[in-house]
Amino acid sequence: MIQNDSSGYRIGEADRDCRWAVLTSDGEQIGRIFRWHGAWFALPAGATDATRQGDGGDGSESAARYLFAEYQAGRITPQPETPSQPQARDDAVPLLHPGMRDNDRTRSAARTAVAGLDAYRWAPLAGYPGSDNPWPVRCQLCGWEGNRYWSHLRGRNGNPPSPYRHPGCIDADKVRAVIPAYTRSPQN
Q1: Is the four-CA dihedral 76, 85, 130, 153 of positive or negative sign?
Q2: Are 73 and 44 in contact (CB under 8 A)?
Q3: pTM for this predicted structure
Q4: Domains of the chain by residue range
Q5: What span, in angstroms and rounded, lies between the C-alpha atoms of 41 and 84?
Q6: Backbone phi, then psi, for 148, in 5-degree steps?
Q7: Residue 97 near residue 126, CB atoms below 8 Å
Q8: Alpha-carbon torsion angle 80, 83, 89, 92, nearest 10
Q9: pLDDT for 115-145, tens place per residue?
Q10: Both ends of the chain: CA-CA distance in Å?
Q11: Are 51 and 41 in contact (CB under 8 A)?
């Protein structure tokens, strides 16, 4: 999502949680923008609370413009860009992402999603964030780590998900051969 903008800021690389850095033309970070359940949020550098700034296709630019306007008004102190660092992991992955409501419905959806990941040989690296939010996962076929969306991994209408997993993974026929869930599917 790197975009260069002649207005004095640019959107840089995303971190592990899909939060993109917003940088001044001097390369100083003035905050991060991210999408959560369709809405775009802006998190100023040094702040802990994000504000909703837009929706849909233009939401990322709205959020970045907001941060830049706050910076120009002197309400944001820029910081040197901090590249995303791998997070230390232990074996205990929480069931729910901290941004999810902890109730029966979300716990049930999370258990269904985790079981689905397991069936198709993905390992969650963080709690369930909802079906349309990025979820850090590990491919158990090759070790690749990155973000995927549960809505893309679960398949549709009784069909299994696409056997294409990510760039560099084994080919689709091998995926179908090594994952029993594909052979149990009536649509495969």
Answers
A1: positive
A2: no
A3: 0.66
A4: 3-80, 104-184
A5: 18
A6: -135, 160
A7: yes
A8: 80
A9: 999 999 999 999 999 888 889 999 999 999 9
A10: 35
A11: yes
